[in-house]
Amino acid sequence: MTWELHVAEAENLLSSSRLPSSTELISLIKRVNPTRLQLHDEDRKRGYRLKNALQNLLLENYGEAFHLAPHPCAPDIVLIKHNTLPSIDACHAVMGVFSENALRTVAVPEAKPQTKPPRKDKVTAETPASPMDVVRQAQRLLDEFDYSQAERLLCDIRIENNRHLPALLRAATMLLQDMGAYTAAIRTLLAQPRAVLRDTAVRELIALAYHRNGMTQEARALFDGLHAVDLGKNALCAYADISFKDGNLAHAWHLLKEADEKEGFVVDHAALMSSVETAMRREAQPWVQRAEEALTLNDMEQAEAQSREALGRCPSLQRPREIIAMAAAKREAEKLAALWRRLEMSEPGPKRLELLETLQEHDTKAQERIAGLIAAEKAAIKRYQVESKLETLRKEAETRKWQECYDIIEWLSRQDDHPEAYREACGVSPYFSVLHQNRRLQKVPGKSAREAWLRFVEAKSAFETGEQAGCFVIMEEIRDYFGHCPEFAEPYRMLLGREQEAARSEIALLLEQAQSEDADAVRIGTIFNRIRKRMSVLPEEERNGHLQTMRERQSLLETEPDGDELVNAYAVCRLFGNVRRASLLREHIADETSLKKVEDEVGELFKIERSGLTLNFSNDMPVDLTSEPALAYRGSTDRHIFLTGLKYFILVDLHEMSATRFDSIYLTGGHLVDALPAKGIFLFRGITETNYVVRAELTASKWAITALFDVSEAFLLEEGATVVDIYLSSDRETDYYLNIKYEDGSRPGKMGRMRVRSRNGMADTVQIKDEPVIYSKRLSSAPDRFIIGATDETRICTRNLTYDFIMGMTPDIWEVDEENRHIYYFYSHMLKRVDFKFDDYTEFPESPGCFFFKMNHRILGVSPTTNTVMIAIKQKAALYDFGTNELSAPFPFSAIVSTRPARKWYCFDYSEERRELTLKDVTRELRSLLAWKPLPLGGGKKRTAEEVQEAYGMLYFGYTCEDPPEDAEGETGACDEAS
Fold it and tell me: Which Gene3D superfamilies does the record match to this protein (predicted)?
């Protein structure tokens, strides 16, 4: 019977009113016992449930004939043993499964009579000091054939912990293997402490000793609790012998196979394996016979099923394997025939190719034929794709969808097996010819190459329609890529000629102004700067001529500077941070009194005092999000936070875990606009006087103001020019990057690098079309990189402001995460994240509130870890979760601060008396500290008037249009921050 049949029999017996005999119950208990069977978890639970029920039935009706023998190593496990027939047992059980009636009925075992301990012979030698010494002494006695004395020594070994476990195991092995003293080995091992008995090797030896001593039930109980993979060869064979005698042939066979993998030799192994396999073959024979009969009837499915049943009972049988292989071969042949039939009826295309690849996996005899068919099918598919791409290209060119056209041509350029299609594509439109085999364009990244070609199409189209304004600027930008192409060269030559004529006219007028007697040195310097820029389009000979003319005119102005001029120039250099030139001028100043006066005046302006401050981090600091903070937030970097009081400011360095207080009237009145965090160099801009900037170096070893100037005076700006943004240069301390716009909007905005008090004007200038204002944002500081853009155009620029690539989008950058190389920006109607190469995009569709924040709020920081952004209006701020479209309740501006980007959100407490600043990380507590509500926006849902009013109140923190405009103090840290 199979185990399922035994289970069915047990269930029937338990549900019937018939009382079976004790022998019948014991037999059924052993047959349903799942301990050594390979069953699913549900079947195993079912088997134990039936075994426990049968054991309770046995004890409740025949309990007086049995007693419960405790397991030697597990007190909560007992063996149900017969009182008078020691060889009869009803398997092990856990004490908790017995019913009260069963425990009441079962007999209490009689106390065993005291047996005399073995006679202790006199020991001739002194007792050794350690268990291993005992083992060595016993081995010497064995070599002298003194078995009784050796047994006495080994039986007396007791260990307290596993440190002497090797000695105990060696002693037990000697008793078992060398002396055959099985009872002594059992007694010695069971006398050890419980902690030692838990060791797997000890339990294995006890089980082996039980088996050899004929105590099968005890041995089986121990073996059942051990993993076969942990057992040695002798133990595996003993366990297999028990399973074989129990009738569990499969378990015995697997144990013997496991023993084959172990080292060593066991005398009975081969004979036992032969007996097991003989019994297994005898048990499996009926299924083999049924498989043969099914094979005779050509019923392969039934033959395979019967063969698998036979192998389940005897895995070593060969004939069932042959029948299974025959059935598999027949199925595979039928499958191949069906695949070939499907192939004959299939249409050319991807599905036919998929069929061929399936055939290639299965039909090993027709590999060459299939490979040829696959190659032909792939070529046909490729031809169809190429022809389809060409047709699409013609349609897109007619509708002037140039970006789609470029993508098609770029794809065709990579199809090396169809070069004629690439040539044909480049001939579809005159605009495409500049792309054919353009090695220069192929060296730049794909996005930059596409944007360069689109700008060529823009300029060429405008030139052909007569709208030539701005065409030359575009052509000049992309000349390196297309200058060798005839389609580019002809319009460029015509545009260059016109530009040269305009430059000659303008230069002639400027030279005439420079020759005027009324022109002073400053005026002439400004004129010559404009001439240098305009003459860049002229031939070299003309440029040299103009340079000579300018040198001659400047020579007429050169006079030996007097002492006052040198002192004034020295003062300007000191204020503007030009240390090198100031040192040179100082060497030529003889008037020590004037020099000291300048030093005193500059020293007073640059005065800064540093004092120590204790920085603490607290987990239990009370958080107050209702009162105005003691300090005001003035900006941050990726490691610094700036806070100001009335006449001082505090710099928190979260890398160094330090805080420092500085007293300076100029730094206190400004907010941070740029920084080189790794160097500890910061640039501050006035809150009320926005034209004034202060450059400071604040590190552990140096704290000093190094420059203080008015931007218009420092950079000799033209009338009407306003500095939108100013950035430090990491290469030179007197160089700055300026983003400039003109108040009347008559000229386009521009960004470039300028040197303090240089008359050479702006270098590396960027101008985007005729946009009056351009956007800029620092991307990194080592080296300097920037995001520069305007409407529908964003550039990633290097330190010399040449672009790595251009994107056709309007920049609205909210945060730059330089560490993770991510950019957070608003586009269309949601916040998005992209890497520095604009390849890996992540969208935050649940962020409709960002549309309103970008227009009316100040962005104070984005937290990549919590998907939150801090926004502010006037003196209130709030947090917005752009992952769930939830807005927090507003709180006082500066009550929560962070780095940029915000790795963590902090609250702080400052004690002026103790000079102590305490920070508390509230990142994980914001949900409990603040009330959060979903913004009633987005989702394509039409909102009621009440919902619109509620959204307005939430978005604008309760302010209304009647409230006074935002004061200057509230602007701190708004849009000008270091990154």
Answer: Tetratricopeptide repeat domain (1.25.40.10)
131-143 helix and 147-155 helix, angle to the nearest 10 degrees: 170
Q: Which long-range contacts (CB under 8 A, 24 or more apart) does 160-166 make?
A: 160/193, 161/193, 161/195, 161/196, 162/195, 162/196, 162/199, 164/130, 164/131, 164/132, 165/196, 165/199, 165/201, 165/202, 166/132
823-880 pLDDT tens trace = 999 987 889 999 988 888 899 998 988 888 888 899 999 999 999 999 999 899 999 9
In this structure, the answer to whether residues 958 and 875 fall within a common structural domain is yes
Tokens of 29: 């208990």
Cα four-point dihedral sign 441, 446, 452, 456:
positive
Cβ(816)–Cβ(979) under 8 Å? yes
Q: Which of 56, 90, 105 lies at the terminal end of a domain, its last residue?
A: 105
pLDDT exceeds cutoff 90 at 891:
yes
Tokens of 275: 């007996």
Q: What distance lies between CA 601 and its chain's CA centroid? A: 55
Whether residue 516 sits in one domain with residue 393: no
**pLDDT score recorded for residue 975:** 37
* Same domain membership, residue 653 and residue 628: yes
Q: H/E element holding 969?
A: none
CATH number at residue 268: 1.25.40.10
Q: Are residues 709 and 640 in the same domain?
A: yes
**Residues 6 or more apart in contact with residue 549 via CB below 8 angstroms:** 511
In terms of domains, do 533 and 638 share one?
no
Answer yes or no: do 515 and 621 share one domain.
no
Residue 738 lies in a domain: no
Cα separation of 252 and 508, whole Å? 109
Closest CA to 793 of 467, 448, 409: 448
Q: Is 973 left (phi over 0), alpha (psi -120 to 50) or beta?
A: left
Residue 372 falls within a domain, yes or no? no
Phi, psi (deg, nearest 5) at residue 669: -90, 15
Q: Is 749 left (phi over 0), alpha (psi -120 to 50) or beta?
A: beta
Q: Give per-residue pLDDT as tens, 272-317.
A: 888 888 888 888 888 888 888 888 888 888 888 888 888 878 888 8
- C-beta separation of 409 from 432 below 8 A: yes
Q: Is residue 758 situated within a structural domain?
A: no
Note the Cα 930 to chain centre separation in Å.
29
Could you tell me which of 967, 159, 972, 509 has the C-alpha nearest to residue 959? 967
How many domains does the chain divide into?
Answer: 7
Rounded to two decimals, what is the model's pTM? Answer: 0.54
pLDDT at site 684? 94
Are the C-beta atoms of 526 and 716 separated by less than 8 Å?
A: yes
pLDDT of residue 419 exceeding 50, the answer is yes
What does the H/E/C string look like for 461-472?
A: HHHHCCCCCCHH
Model confidence pLDDT, tens digit, residues 82-130:
776 666 777 888 877 888 777 777 765 544 444 444 454 444 444 455 8
On whether both 243 and 222 belong to a single domain, the answer is yes
Among 865, 900, 895, 864, residue whose Cα is nearest residue 878: 895
Strands 891-892 and 77-82: unpaired
- Enclosing domain of residue 526: 509-555
Q: What is the DSSP letter of 171?
A: H
State how far the Cα of 382 lies from the Cα of 389, in Å rounded to an integer: 10
Last-in-domain residue among 280, 302, 331: 280
> Identity (one letter) of the amino acid at 333?
A
Which residues have a Cβ under 8 Å from the Cβ of 871 and sit 6 or more positions away? 853, 857, 858, 859, 860, 877, 878, 879, 880
**Same structural domain, 840 and 946:** yes
pLDDT single digits (tens) 690-712:
788 999 999 888 899 999 999 98
How many whole angstroms separate alpha carbon 180 and alpha carbon 213? 9
Residue 360 falls inside a structural domain:
no
